[in-house]
Automatic annotation (TrEMBL):
Annotated protein name in UniProt: DivIVA domain-containing protein
InterPro entries named in the record: DivIVA_domain (IPR019933)
Source species: Kribbella sancticallisti
């Protein structure tokens, strides 16, 4: 699984970049078999909620959601 690059948005709703980055880092470590304090499960992906931001820079919500859907499918295998 390749590390994602999400589009940054400012004038429409986006996800908090720090929260997404932290979760994706844990997810990538889990997928690559690297040591991580709390490995991410498919259920974690299904339940994660990120704070939304407006007028501040954030990640495109649809891109993040699509990436997480794909990652969940991979972890369920």
């Amino acid at each position: 699984m390749a590390e994602p690059l999400f589009t940054r948005v400012r004038w429409r709703g986006g996800y908090d970049m720090e929260q997404v980055d932290a979760f994706v880092e844990r997810l990538m470590a889990t997928a690559e078999g690297r040591p991580v304090d709390r490995p991410v499960t498919a259920d974690d992906i299904r339940q994660v909620q990120f704070r939304s931001v407006r007028l501040a820079e954030g990640y495109d919500m649809e891109e993040v959601d699509n990436f997480l859907d794909q990652a969940e499918g991979l972890l369920r295998r």
